[in-house]
C-alpha cells in the first residue's frame, strides 16, 4: 500500500483561531475513510486540509502530487447559469480542455439523474440537486482521491441510495474515498476505516469493525461512547 497523504502533528487555524490540534493521519491508496464527530468537531476543516486548501500552521502535510484529487463540498458553489454550463465550467476550471468538458457533461448529468434539468438555472435547484451537480463534476474528473463533505445530508432516501451507489462505484473503480458523515449506517456500508474527531482532535482512527465495538470506543472518550449510543 502506498501513502497518498500524510499529516504529522498538524495544527490548523482559521482566521488565526486554532481549529485542529496535533492531527496525525495517513491515507493509503484504496482507503475508504469516514470522518465522524459532533457539529464543529473539525470534519470539514480536516477535509479541506487534506484537499490542500488549508495548510497547517504547525506540523507537516505531504501528499503525492501526481494523484488527482477532487472534493464535493458541504454546500456546493454554483454560478447563476445553467446546470450544464456550471458543470462544463467546473470541469474546465479543474483542467479539462473545454471541448472535452462539453463532451463529458451530458453523460455525467445522466449518471446522477439530472439530464432533464441540464438547461435549468443551477441556483434554482434544490440542495440535493445541487449536490448531484457537484457529484457529476467529480464523476467526470475520475479522481484518484475523492473528498466528500456530508454528501447525502440534504438528500431524500432514494437519492441517498443513489449517491451511496455512486460512491461505491468510485471506490470499486480504485478511487480512494474520504467522507464526513453523520449517518452511521452509511459509515458502516461504505467505510473501511473511521476517524473520530472531538474538538479538533482525532481521538480514534480504527478499522470500521473495531470502531463500532462499543467497549473499544468507550475507551476513546465518554463523549464518543455517547455519540454512538445517541445515533443508534
Ligand atoms: N470560516 C470559518 N471561520 C472561523 N471559524 C470556523 C470557520 N469554519 C469553521 N470554523 C470553526 O472551526 C471549528 C470546526 O468546524 P468544522 O466546520 O470543521 O466542523 P464540522 O465537524 O465539519 O461540523 P458540522 O458537523 O457542523 O459540519 C468550529 O468551531 C467552527 O466554528
Ligand atoms: Mg462540516
TrEMBL record:
It comes from the Bacteria. Keywords: ATP-binding, Cell membrane, Membrane, Nucleotide-binding, Transport. SUPFAM superfamilies: P-loop containing nucleoside triphosphate hydrolases. GO terms for molecular function: ATP binding; ATP hydrolysis activity. Residues 5-224 form the ABC transporter domain. InterPro entries: AAA+_ATPase, ABC_transporter-like_ATP-bd, ABC_transporter-like_CS, ABC_transporter_ATP-bind, P-loop_NTPase. The keyword Nucleotide-binding applies. SMART domains: AAA (SM00382). The keyword DNA-binding does not apply. Belongs to the ABC transporter superfamily. This is ATP-binding cassette domain-containing protein. It comes from Ramlibacter pinisoli.
Amino acid at each position: 500500500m502506498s501513502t497518498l497523504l500524510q499529516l504529522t502533528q498538524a495544527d490548523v487555524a482559521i482566521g488565526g483561531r486554532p481549529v485542529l490540534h496535533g492531527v496525525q493521519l495517513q491515507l493509503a491508496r484504496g482507503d475508504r475513510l469516514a470522518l465522524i464527530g459532533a457539529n464543529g468537531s473539525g470534519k470539514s476543516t480536516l477535509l479541506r486540509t487534506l484537499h490542500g486548501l488549508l495548510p497547517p500552521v504547525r506540523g507537516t502535510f505531504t501528499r503525492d502530487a501526481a494523484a488527482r484529487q477532487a472534493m464535493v463540498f458541504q454546500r456546493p458553489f454554483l454560478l447563476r447559469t445553467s446546470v450544464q454550463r456550471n458543470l462544463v465550467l467546473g470541469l474546465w476550471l479543474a483542467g479539462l480542455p473545454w471541448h472535452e468538458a462539453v463532451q463529458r457533461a451530458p453523460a455525467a448529468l445522466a449518471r446522477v439523474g439530472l439530464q432533464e434539468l441540464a438547461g435549468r438555472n443551477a441556483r434554482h435547484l434544490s440542495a440535493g440537486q445541487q449536490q448531484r451537480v457537484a457529484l457529476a463534476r467529480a464523476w467526470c474528473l475520475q479522481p484518484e482521491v475523492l473528498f466528500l463533505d456530508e454528501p447525502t445530508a440534504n438528500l431524500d432516501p432514494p437519492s441517498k441510495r443513489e449517491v451511496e451507489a455512486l460512491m461505491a462505484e468510485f471506490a470499486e473503480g480504485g478511487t480512494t474515498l474520504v467522507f464526513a458523515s453523520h449517518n452511521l449506517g452509511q459509515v458502516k456500508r461504505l467505510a473501511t476505516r473511521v476517524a473520530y474527531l472531538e474538538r479538533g482532535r482525532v481521538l480514534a482512527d480504527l478499522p470500521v469493525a473495531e470502531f463500532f465495538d462499543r467497549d473499544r470506543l468507550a475507551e476513546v472518550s465518554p463523549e464518543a461512547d455517547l455519540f454512538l449510543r445517541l445515533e443508534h
